[in-house]
Amino acid sequence: MTIGVILLVHADLGRAARVARIWAAQGCAVAVHVDARVPRGAFDGVRAMLAGESRIGFTRRFACEWGTWGIVAATQAAAQTLLADPAVRHVYLASGSCLPLRPAAELAAHLADHPDTDFIESVTAADVGWTVAGLNEERFTLRFPFAWRRRRWLFDRTVELQRRLRLCRRPPEGIAPHLGAQWWCLTRRTLDAILTDPRRAEFDRYFRQVWIPDESYFQTLARRHARRIESRSLTLARFDSSGRPHLFHDDHAALLRQSNCFVARKIWPGAERLYAEFPAPASRPGPPDPDRIDRLFARAEAERQRGRPGLYNQARFPRKDAENGKTAAPYAVLQGVADLFPEIGPWLARATGFTVHGRLFHPGRVEFANGDAAAPGGLSDSAALRDHDRRAFLTNLVWAARDQRQVFMARPGETADLTWFMATDPNARILIVPGAWILALSRAPRPFAELRSRAVALQKAEDAQLAILTSPHARARVRAWPLAEALDAPEGLLAGLLGEVAALPPGPMAPPPRLADVSGLPDLLRRLRDSGLRPPVSADALRAFSEAAARVPARAAR
Amino acid sequence: MVRVIESYRLGMTRRRLLWRARRQGRRLRPFADRTAAIRPGDILLAVVQRNEMPRLPYFLDWYRRLGVAHVLAVDNGSDDGSRDWLADQPDVSVWTTPDSYRAARFGMDWLTHLLGRHGHDHWVVTADPDEFLVYPFHDSRPLAALTGWLDAAQARSYPAMLLDMYPRGAVDESRYRPGDDPFETACWFDAANYTIRPNPVHGNLWIQGGPRARAMFADRPGLAPSLNKIPLVRWRRGYVYTSSTHMLLPRGLNRVWDRLGGERPAGCLMHAKFLSPMAAKVAEEMERGEHFAGGQEYRAYAEALAGGGGFWTPWSTRFAGWRQLERLGLMSRGGWA
């Protein structure tokens, strides 16, 4: 038995000739169709190149404008030539930029195992959106007098006009439009039936006006004649989201071999290594399995369309709220916790394994964990550099350290410009002990008037921040821990912290870190109250806390 | 209305720059003109150089390996033999000029002129002798594969951010010899230390940061050098680089980034500036005062070099190929797989 191969060629004639030889050398009968638009001289050149090959013939040339009838006409003529040879049992439609990956003998064996099967992707146009970035059903119901590639404006206008006038053609009686990849392998019986169908003239007349008939003519008519259709192509050909074919390059060699497909398309004309290595002498038997290649293309496509969440670079700078991930990974902001537990950083780092920074947005200096001068990605501890673009500082840090959870401390107002950004970022975990700043204030050796105005400013900043964090637009995980409760049960705050930030289940904890000194606090609270302010906590709430604070050194002494 | 006025103004700017280029370009003297050998579809490289003899051999080989077919070189008064060396290369055309680099918009007028005459409808890489283009798959797919794919996607330009590479120790510690791979020693870079803001007028992204911002401009980050570059363009007569290769007119060429979350294709220009003999070069360039913003960048280098410090930190990343750059998000394949 012989496999007949139709080779549609329109460019890179040298390559195409080489591919024709590859098929012919393995005993296939090859019918080469060269696009009529290829200049005479180039055509004569390739014909001379293949002159001595008895298995290779050239067929009548048609102009193959993309998307038009010429390609089908060329295929019909080439098929007729091949079927004239009674030894041809199957006809494989390929192009000059296809490359056989496996020996023709393996293809022949596969076809011999399925003597009555037509391998042609054929999907009903009515039920399935097979096409990418283009017309689907309308391919069959409108008319297309203008070529899309050259006359795009007229093409679009005629489509528009027909839609507006509600013009609609009906397919011929007994025809159900099907779509599929152009590259098929049909049995002699089916192909012959299509070409000698008494109604062929009627079908041809109809398909002349269908858009991209090479993806529907044989796909539709095979349904009329075939005994058994396996609706997938034996040729590995993939398209990107704008309908352009993916090209195969030298670095795809391993994937192509592993795919076990018989033929691949399109090969980049310069892919020397692929042309040298394929068809592979002997491959593992079995059906095609292009899974890994599909995954590779799918991943690239997802990256092009949606990008990597949290990445800002020269190729991806999403406008506000179109980020698809404002940051790359979860991170946590602790506000007020360090006022209660000054040494919370090392303690939390030990308990969770996270990187726990100090105040990253401290006005004077970036307080990286361990007092480092630099951080992942090469970020510097210079406040001026950070303030040049504070949001980029945060997103860079989270991106660069995306496999290591980042935690940092904040004071009210310090991150005011980033509050909306973090509040609308589902990756942000924000734990606030409102009013805890009063503890730090009570230890500051400053005149009361200064402390008072500072307290007013901090309170205002915190109120504004909380209003945003609790707004209905907020998507961050926010937890406000009442100061009175924290003071009453400091270890409860630590347990809550581990639960919120690290999602650790409740359980035994390491000995808690040292509690802050609150000896000056009752006095400050009283004076603030008497000066007409409303302090964030009453002096009564302090009792338990100061008792606990007093207990800790005792335990340490024991 | 504002947009109309703005685009009219940019059109005027473009015409003014083209006119400048014509005037400046007429003064270029052909020294070795092999442009008759340029065939349609060839990929070209355009470069301005002065006394870069140590760097040129590796530089040319890099781009030859990527499949550049012809080099358009302007020699700005070299006296180290580099002009003659370039003229001896079979795939290089050389023009010379003793004119001021600064008065020619840092060489851009010269190149605009040459590209208008020889680069029309070619893909052209415009790079300095210390800039090395990398892009996804550059080790297995020549530039023609990339440009062919860009053509199919109807893209006219391709961005490649400048990636400053530096050695582990002080810049002048190890000796660089002609033909050496500069990234053998200058193999470190900052992975995620860059700031980006869109330029609403020209439509490009303005990128700053990296080791130079960190080590030399920490107290005035706004003055740190720009790192955004668009070095690969399917050139047409009438295109013009407005500021180094940072951006072009017409401004549609600068729209190489995605605003809706996707990633467009982008490469990197690995920057081998920080190599010995750095100190000598800095001293010479400060003397000449031919560089951008009164050479303030060179002044900063001089200060940094005088301190003997390098750019290296424990958080520097060691270069390990384009896949690493892609994983780090410095470049994007943009759907090219």
**Strand order of the biggest β-sheet of chain B:** 1-4-3-2-5-12-7
DSSP helix fraction of chain B: 25-40%
CATH class of the largest domain in chain A: Alpha Beta
Shape of chain B: globular
Q: How are the secondary structure elements laid out?
A:
The complex is a heterodimer of chains A (558) and B (337).
Chain A: E1 2-9, H1 13-25, E2 29-34, H2 40-49, E3 56-58, H3 70-83, E4 88-95, E5 99-100, H4 104-113, E6 117-119, E7 123-124, H5 138-141, H6 152-164, E8 178-179, E9 185-187, H7 188-195, H8 200-207, H9 217-225, E10 228-230, E11 235-237, H10 253-259, E12 263-265, H11 272-277, H12 291-305, E13 331-335, H13 337-340, H14 344-352, E14 355-359, E15 374-375, E16 379-380, H15 383-388, H16 390-400, E17 406-410, H17 419-423, E18 428-432, H18 437-443, H19 448-469, E19 477-480, H20 483-488, H21 490-502, H22 521-530, H23 542-557
Chain B: H1 2-25, E1 29-32, E2 44-49, H2 56-65, E3 70-75, H3 82-87, E4 92-96, H4 108-118, E5 123-126, E6 131-134, H5 143-152, E7 157-158, E8 160-164, E9 188-189, E10 194-198, E11 205-209, H6 210-216, E12 232-234, E13 240-243, E14 247-249, E15 267-271, H7 278-288, H8 292-306, E16 317-318, H9 322-327
Parallel strand pairs in B: 2-3, 2-5, 3-4, 8-15
Antiparallel strand pairs in B: 1-4, 5-12, 6-15, 7-12, 9-16, 10-11, 13-14
Helix pairs in contact in B: 1-4, 7-8
Describe this structure in words.
The complex is a heterodimer of chains A (558) and B (337). Chain A is of the alpha/beta class and 558 residues long. Chain A has a 5-stranded mixed β-sheet, with helices on both faces. A 5-stranded parallel β-sheet of chain A has the order 14-17-13-18-19. In chain A, strands 5-12-11 form a 3-stranded mixed β-sheet. In chain A, helix 18 (437-443) packs antiparallel against helix 19 (448-469). Chain A is elongated. Chain B is of the alpha/beta class. Chain B has one domain. In chain B, helix 7 runs antiparallel to helix 8. At the A-B interface, helix 12, strand 15, strand 16, helix 15 and helix 16 of A face helix 5, strand 10, strand 11 and helix 6 of B.
